Amino acid sequence: MFSALLVYALVVLSTDACRTPQVPNNGKISFRLPTKASPNEMSSYSAGMIAVYTCDGNFHLMGPRHRRCHDDGLWYPQSLPFCLSDVTNGLPAVQSSAYKVGGEAFFAVDGDRNTCTSTTVEESPWLAVHLEDVLPIAIIKLNFRYTTKPSAVYVTVRVGNSTRAYAHNAVCSVFKGMPPAGHSVYLLCPTVVHGRYVSIHLHGTASLSVCELVAYSEAASLEKSLNVVTLQSFDYTSARDVLERNDFMGVYIALSSLIFIVLLVGVLAHFNRKCSANSDVAEFPAVESETSDRVLDTRRVSQEKLIEIIP
């Protein structure tokens, strides 16, 4: 019984709490121990381990910078951050009209929130930025002009390759509501949209005034965009994780059954010792020893299986 319990403890305690966390495109991960833990007390991804995310070069981190491994085998928060690049800064921009000098379309992509575009009051005004290449667009950031009497806006952001007033391109996202004063509006494309042009369209009759329009992409160039198939999801639980947890549960059930069998053999051995005089006494130590060998073999196989399950 003691041997079986020891084997069970060794197998369970030797496993990591969490799987290797995913790395976002254009990013990297470093790991940090909890404040009161020493390296000798922690396995590679034990509960309490902290993953720290950073991005390469000119890519910006969007999402959680830190994630922690928990006892349930998951990293929290579960959302994976993005490493994205601003692909609109300083590029050519056009708009449906210009209200006056100083309200040109370029001010939406000059990197300065204090300079803003401004169209005339017209029906369905728009603003468009010409990207250098056909790129996968994931997130749009907008800053609207601050006014003392703000009003609700209804805008649609489109991405695509058509230049026919840009209205035929795919919809990335829609914003309805009051623009937050002094803050950016981030719009996430439900799926990555590829295109050469990013445009914003105001519904109704009014003047469109944008201080900043930024399109973020995982690919900073056409060459990189060819290697980007899809953007990692903010909330992910892979089917492989679920299957592997089921495999681990199977190992757990097998070990529990083995412990029960060992206990049953021990009880039967004790009973037979009391009922037999001398003839069968010598047989049970041999069976007990044989059982111990099977326990050790099972431990070895189980550990190998767990190594396959949790690399």
UniProtKB/TrEMBL annotation:
Keywords: Calcium, Disulfide bond, Lectin, Membrane, Metal-binding, Signal, Sushi, Transmembrane, Transmembrane helix
Keyword DNA damage: no
GO biological process entries: regulation of cellular defense response; regulation of complement activation, lectin pathway
PROSITE patterns the UniProt entry points to: SUSHI (PS50923)
Residue ranges crossing the lipid bilayer per the database entry: 249-269
Quaternary state and interactors: Homotrimer.
PANTHER family for the chain: F5_8 TYPE C DOMAIN-CONTAINING PROTEIN, FTP DOMAIN-CONTAINING PROTEIN
Protein name (record): Sushi domain-containing protein
Native source species: Ixodes scapularis
